[in-house]
Input
Amino acid sequence: MNGAAPVSNTDSTTQTGNPQTPEINKETNSSNLFEQIDLKCVSEDYHSAVIVHPARIYQWNVLAALDEAGLADAMMSRIWPVLEDRLFQAQFDFDYRGVNQIMVLWDQKAAESLPKQMFYEEEETVIITEPPEENDATEAEQDNEDEAFPSVIIEFNNEELINDLLKNWLLEDTPTIEMFGVQVKRFQEDGMDDIYYIDGNRLIATRTTLFEKMMRPQQPESELRKELLNTNKNEDFIVVSSPSLCQALAEKAKEQLPEDFFSDFNNFATLLKDLKAVKLAGGFHNSNLLALSVSANDRSAAQKIQTNWDSALKVEQDRLRKQGSGFDSTRMIEDQAARKILKGMEDQMIDGLAVSADQNRVTLSLTKPKNFSDLVRILDPAIQSAKQAVTQAEYRNQFKRIGLAFHNYHDIHYEFPAVGGDSKGKGRELSWRVHILPYLGHQELYDKFRMDEPWTSAHNRKLIAEMPDVFKSVGVDDPSKTSMHVFQGDFAVDPLKGINFRKIRDGGSQTLLVVESAPDKAAIWTQPTSLDLDFENPISSLGNYEKEAFVSVFVNGRVAELPTNIDGNLLKALITFNGGENVKDQLLELLSK
Output
């Protein structure tokens, strides 16, 4: 989040409360400083803004239902893919449900670098045949000239979340200093000069050169502030941009996208020249789901835009009425009545598209359908189905992690972890699950165990309550028990005899490593127990199943769900590692069903 801007050349005395520095009006300090969507901080330098109200978005009944089902974050990541970016997650590691508002402000410098950030281009390899020309600017300063980040104001539900966030943004030794009459944290490194100011439950992150103007009690009027003041404060999100930034982004997009995508680009560019600002606002709690509005330079320009939009909208509405939106409700909704309601809502949204004008402002709005509040009830079956699918996928991932841990253990010890201890006898009275802890990210827990004592010792028994979530099993209520097992015996992958890849002659794709038993076969996770194979009725070795399939990990790391009505001879062949059976085709047919 560190904004890349040149270090300010302002005299240090000016930055530490010098009488020449504008003082903060006591009446506007603290919480009153952030009235009207924090507009007190919107100086004339800024011309574009994005405002999002995450906590309110998560209160929408559909998203709340998805959240309760554990699906909301996945949905939000699809809408806003940056949430899935690991670097973004590392820098912005906080729960958005605890954030009332995020405001991002672009000044000219930040805006100029935005197209490059949004439309990333790989650098070409350049072969230097001559020494580069000398340049007085340092490498950091050159980077600064190329890229600058916007200012960010975040309002949390409580102050504790700010400190958690700053741990990701700042170094531990970032100093706290007085600047412009307030206490700030100032981060300076490699030409970057950032200010982090905390006021109650609000955080401002900006460049030093902009901070002084943000702290003024009275801000000069600007187009951005006018647009924000002319916005419904109950919107879930607001995007306001200057025409110049829109045009810069469009120009960059034109370079990246196919030619026919911007077939009418010249008309679009001409339109932008007649505008002062472009605004997109919307949410789930107002009469309009979306509203795109433009502020024209004069009434004549507004009339031209209105005529253009009216004509384009009529054509688009006719197309949508004939062809539909492309949304296929049959893929997620089985109930015929629910599909009919959704189709009615779609028709209402098409008819609800409208263009309106007020003085120099033209707005294209999308009206919320009458039955919009019924969405959560209509979508509930699909939500529950998706929840079940996600839960099962997460459960399969636990087995995948365990299979990977077996392989990593094998890479170090040249054999698989033992049913109880290893082939040398170390930790023989502890489960294989204990021995793979370091390869599951639980080295600290592993170090707590005493390997020369049994799992029943006074010391080791205390650790039973610390079973990692990766061993939690479906249908097993006891938090100290798991139904993840291996088979034990001369026929199975029993590492007490030093079993490794070379000894598994049936092949890793045809040999089971870890299986999910029925809950009645669950065991304390540290106990060195395993499953005994019933050669006459192999499936009974796994317990009394009530479900149709059980999760398994093969020696090659593949995770699969095998039916509980699996052929007994096939299951026996999969459990044995050196039986000589060739069940490849039979297994392939089974897994393809």
Remarks:
- Residues 1-36, 81-91, 120-146 have pLDDT under 50 and may be disordered.
